[in-house]
Amino acid sequence: MTEQPPARKGTTVHSVTLNNGVDMPILGFGVYQVPPEQTEKVVTDALAAGYRSIDTAAAYGNEEAVGRAINSSGIPREELFITTKLWVQDHPAEDNTRRAFDVSLRKLGLDHVDLYLMHQPYRDVHGQWRAMQDIHRGGLARAIGVSNFHPDRLVDLIEHNEITPAVNQVETHPFHQRTADQDLMRDRGVQIESWGPFAEGRNDLFTHPVLSEIGGQHGKSVAQVVLRWLVQRGVVAIPKSVRVERMAENLDVFDFALTDEQVARIAALDTGASVFFDHRDPGMTTQLGNHRLTD
User: For the NADP-dependent oxidoreductase domain, which residue ranges apply (predicted)?
Assistant: First the structure.
């Protein structure tokens, strides 16, 4: 791994190198479910806390607020890593993908993004990917990737297109660890990224006895234990918080390491199933695949 500039109190946020040589911070800040009217302040606070990677999406409805925070931060653009996502596109997917990207870029107020992800594995994914390849070749996205792709769909996309996705952002947390999926991604040169690293608190994650005991052994919170566990696995994560003290806490995970025994105890928490929903479920395929966004 390479290193990024120091965050708070001397903490160094490590990075991973993607399959095209682009460095990505291993910890970033996500804005899913942050209301647009709160997003500018939240992202401003996150940047002040030391985050340099911000993850948004067209579907979140807060790209404009993210852009305002970025552009008023005074942080040089080259120090930031900005991700946004393409929502499911109608035919012709290639034309619509480029239009959707241009809308996102305008809302963000940027001349490029660092990572552009296909948000869902539905409809004409190959047409969408061809357009994303053109966006990347044109220098408007430094890297392109996907989100919520199970191994079969990921391999199909890789084997029938020129550019291998740099990232696959999937649900990953102690109760759904995706170790076999990560192994396949590693073999194919795809970086795994976690959404929902805290499982949105489900299964009583923040008071879980195993995670709490491990945290106590290091003088760390459960959230810090989970993020440290992901970092040690080489999983990129984008925790979200609207509280400044929690933002700082979530970055403060580079001064300790979990033991092999502690890692094994966390491994035993894996249920092998989503705590939210399965993207392969026919009902969810219909619901997400037919959902439309408005500009």
Answer: 33-270
- Point out the catalytic residue in the list 51, 60, 116, 122: 60
CA–centroid distance for 7 within its chain: 19
Q: At a CB cut-off of 8 Å and minimum separation 6, what does 264 contact?
A: none
Which residue type sits at 295? Answer: D
Q: Kindly state the DSSP code that residue 140 receives in the 8-state scheme.
A: S
Q: Is 32 a catalytic residue?
A: no
CATH superfamily of 2-200+230-244: NADP-dependent oxidoreductase domain (3.20.20.100)
State pTM to two decimals: 0.94
In this predicted structure, what is the pLDDT of residue 294?
74
User: Would you state the pLDDT for residue 90?
Assistant: 82
- Between CA 31 and CA 62 the distance in angstroms is 8
Q: Any bridge partners for residue 82, and if so which?
A: 54
Domain ranges of the chain: 2-200+230-244
Using CA atoms in the order 180, 125, 291, 178, what is the torsion angle rounded to 10 degrees? Answer: 10
Between CA 170 and CA 45 the distance in angstroms is: 26
